[in-house]
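Lecture notes, unit on protein representations.

Consider one protein chain, 98 amino acids long.
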Amino acid sequence: VAGGNVSNASRVVAGMRAGFRACYQRGLAQNPDAQGSIRLSIRVGPGGEVQGVSASASGNLPGSVVSCVQSRASAAQFSPPEGGSAVISVPVTFVKQN
């Protein structure tokens, strides 16, 4: 977390994981060998609302997985950050299970 502290950041991010997994499962239907990682930067505004999400991906994840994860993250609601704003960096790694 850069900027102000967000008291519930880790709990909110943990709650997003199931949705991220669902995005990946749909991606596997398109490309059975899809795996890789996404680094999300989530900008949190003064009321705890998500003001923007940027994503950088590596590996061979379909674009649909990256955009799905981004949209899930943009729907999150955090506690108001100390100091009025924060950027939360979230690494998400998808590895194919055999």
